[in-house]
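Worked Example 4.2. Consider the chain below.
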Amino acid sequence: MIAEAAAVEVIRAAALDGVAHGFLGRRGGVSAGLHGGLNVGLGSDDDPAAIEENRRRATDAVLPGAALVTCYQIHSADCITVAEPLAERPHGDALVTDRPGIALGILTADCAPVLLADTSAGIVGAAHAGWKGAIGGVTDATIAAMEALGAQRERIVAAIGPCIARASYEVDDDFRRRFEADDPANERFFADARADHAQFDLEGYVAHRLARAGVRRIEALGLDTYADEPRFFSYRRATHRGEPSYGRQIAIIGLR
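Applying the procedure from the previous section yields the following structure tokens:
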């Protein structure tokens, strides 16, 4: 039986004022146990009925009556242009649309959710930027797909939602060298940690990629999924605890 839950918490960005959007955490859902709260992850080991109810609540909290479209996320730079509600989840890590009534959703559990809009053109996008997608160019692909629909990148605004913060994201030297080989200037996104390890600033790196692509207004919310357990799900936190499963939160954007 699905339990009652408190109101869904919707975190909004000033940069996207006037656009139907929201970064959601775990507050306001009906899942229990390890997935307690607003778990929307179809791939999680959770009650499917609870997941479906959570996805409905999440959509209604941002764009009531809209059709939710999400990806089967694969940590790629692939972006899908959505022209109508989809029965199946396409493989990829970003979505764009110019059609009202479609809610684009990106799931995360430490990776960075990025929501984008060109309000003049009536075009929105959503990207799932884990480290693989970020360095692979998922935000660049999203901007290009928005441009193909008629957006202009100098008008695009972007917001980076809750993700794992540098203080919580320890990586090894091989990880660091991969980014520095791509661009030596990426060294600035790492802080020294224990021997042969560093702390990586995923949010800062994603903001850099957006700026480098020509996005002029970028808002980073600075919310750490790993550190704030009551508010957010975290894959890394669950892994460090040896937990067998974890929830996923969602970021949604759409046109009324």
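The chain has one domain: 10-165+201-254. The chain has a mean pLDDT of 96. Compare this with Example 4.1 before moving on.
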